[in-house]
Design a protein that fits this description.
The chain has 443 residues and is of the alpha/beta class. Helix content is 20%, strand content 30%. The strands form 5 sheets. Strands 11, 12, 13, 14, 15, 22 and 23 form a 7-stranded mixed β-sheet that branches. Strands 18-17-16-19-20-21 form a 6-stranded parallel β-sheet.
Amino acid sequence: MTLLKGLLKSGFKLPECEKHFHDHDETWLILKGQGTGYWIDREGRREDFALEEGDVWMIPAGYEHGSEGLADTGKNSGDFTIAVHDGTMPPGCHEKGHYYVEQEGYIPSFELVKTPTNRYSQPLDLPAKMPAFRFEALGEAALCEDDTPACTAGALLCRTLFSGMTNGTERNVMMGGNYSGDFPIACGYQNVGEVLKVGDGVAGYAVGDVIFCGEHLNHRQYFAAPAASNALTVKLPPEIDPRHAALFGVGSVALHDVRRAQVQIGERVLVVGAGPVGQCTVQFARLAGAVVTVCDLDQHRLDIAAELGAHSTLIPDEDWANIVARGPFDCAIEDSGAPILDHLVGAHPDNGVIKHRGRAVLIAGRDRVDYRFNRGQGSELSILHASHFTADDLREVCRLATEGIFKTAPLIQDQVPYSDMKGIYDRLRDDPTGLFGVVFDWR
């Protein structure tokens, strides 16, 4: 808005004024005399105003307005003088002048846009080093120190509230599996944190927001979450318990895999393995309209799967005869990581789990896969792979959890302070089936 000098010393006489509107706010300064004004708001309601020397009449953008003069004469007083101040003209608005809804065919309005800025923020008093967790050597996990990240452009600097363990992936890395690498190595992609600082160029987030990030940022006290539209970061609504959100990563993996399988209404789906990913797969396969059977060796896990919507549950016989008897299935989603593909494909046409031209989706990490090719060829089976989840998968998981349709709370078996993480990882190494959903508390 420009500096206006001499506005109160100028002005023009206004006997009357026809109905019109502007794309910007307008202010009438009444310098002399008496007159009238009216406006018609965006909903079509009219309001009339008596105007006299010293009044200031502020007219919002898009309000039709004018002056019909005094009631007895149809004109304002002979000395009725006003000065007009035009408000900020937004990009794309029409030039100054009178415009008419009858001709233009629209009514403008303004929208508030809040652009985050760090212009006056105080430096965060964070330590140079922070607690973090990593695998120091094969099978050995330890709490360590790492550099505290900075807040960079396009990112959110967050203090971790909770992080969720990804049982299969993290054991794979710890034990030198196909996801592993050179030690020491860190792992983890389920971080829930409070935003401490918003990086330049980030919109839609503010300090104090609670977010989930599914990028591979590892278990650590502070993390910098990317905030681009395709980033695996989502703001959690107040209806979501942040502790429950610590398993949104495994939930998003499951949703991605059900989408990859293209599960349809009425299809028969077998979920192999009732760990955290399998439990989420059960929920999303049922939401997709499938009739869902889940198998596992742990009856307690099967009971949870039944509570979360599985239509039937089974502990497989040694030869999987009871699974075959429930089939054939349109699709089998393998979440266990066990070498059971021969059971799914079968050795003969009458003992396979998957129907002709059915689908097998392989989720859990493994170095290589072997199966009887002739049997797969004879049934024209599709063997599908699925990678990490997408931003859209994560947004849908958050939406469904907000609506109460998708649940992670029943999956949480252990919640421990981060200082006790080593004990959990020792259990993951020595007795992986004894762990279920695990959430680490960093508060």
